[in-house]
Amino acid sequence: MDVAWIPGDADAVVVAVVAVVALAGAGWAIARRSGRGAPPPAVIESHTIVETPVSAAPADIVDHPEATSGRFSRLRGRLGATLAGVLHRGAMSASDYDALEEALLLADVGASATDAILAGVKSRLGANFDLEPTQALREALLEAIDPAADRSLALGQAGQGQAKSVIVVGVNGVGKTTTVGKLARVLVADGYSVMLGAADTFRAAAADQLETWGARVGVPVERSERDGADPASVAFAAAERAVGDSADVLLIDTAGRLQNKQGLMDELGKIVRVVGKVSPRAEVLLVLDATTGQNGLAQARVFAEATDVTGIVLTKLDGSAKGGIVVAVQRELGVPVKFVGLGEGADDLAPFEPVAFVDSLLGTA
Ligand SMILES: Nc1nc2c(ncn2[C@@H]2O[C@H](COP(=O)(O)OP(=O)(O)O)[C@@H](O)[C@H]2O)c(=O)[nH]1
Ligand SMILES: [Mg+2]
Known about the structure:
This protein is an alpha/beta fold and 365 residues long. The chain is built from 13 helices and ten strands. The protein has a ten-stranded mixed β-sheet, with helices on both faces. The structure holds guanosine-5'-diphosphate and magnesium ion.
């Protein structure tokens, strides 16, 4: 997979620099009005936290994100490879049910959800002889996906300045940092004042990657310059700054690796705890890579034990024909998929839409 976002970021930085020079006065006026000067560096536990001044242009000057509604439809025709065409019109034979079961398992729906969906299809067809099997499957899939679940982020209204935290967790490489950047962009477009916290302190490059997103979106980033700085300290400093600056939302990016699993989970627990001391927690979003199948489910279990996950972001659905993982992972964790990643670009994050999802699974959209 190529890294298509790198030239994009370079462009965005150039645009941001030009915009800052051209609109420096206006930019600072806006920053001051929202109470965001550049405060002096804060020192936490002996390492300096570098405050990124709010020097980027307001996001509406940097560039314009695409509307989020309708993004999901880009999956059209991508996920139906395994389910489309399994069913035919008229009565279902035993071998039709076998074929459906196999197709659901192949689509990564998982064994228990497959059983529930098959039972749902049978009971619907038993109760209504006029119902077409595809329609029965559509209804059973929708039921399994739970369209009534609340998939919004618990951020309240923009402009309240409550510094609500969204902590983004997941293993290395699943797309956490990219998701934070894409999400910041959507929130800024919706009028939220956003701050980012770079609590992946393993390599300076991780904070650099987040900072590039911050510049692109026009939001400040709290980071440490030092590799291996204490992630919870950076997260805490970010929360204090978000509260001090009356930001609406603080998005915290975390590391997905440590020497061992227990160490990582302890670290995440600590980040969630210390941030919660100053900033009301809105969400803990678990990012999972859709292409990793059952392995992703195993990860989900481990993270759910360590933190109170409130939502799932399923990335790289663009690279997977197996959308059924959405059903499996929701069932595993008991929390809804709230967003899906559809590519590496800045606008490739879509709110999850159950009906559109089922239609793309069935190849009917
Ligand atoms: N195709 C695709 N690539 C993605 C998506 N989300 C992230 N990526 C890529 O996955 C790679 C790892 O992403 P990154 O955000 O650095 O992962 P992190 O280690 O969890 O922070 C990068 O090359 C991203 O561009 C997605 O939805 N689709
Ligand atoms: Mg990262």
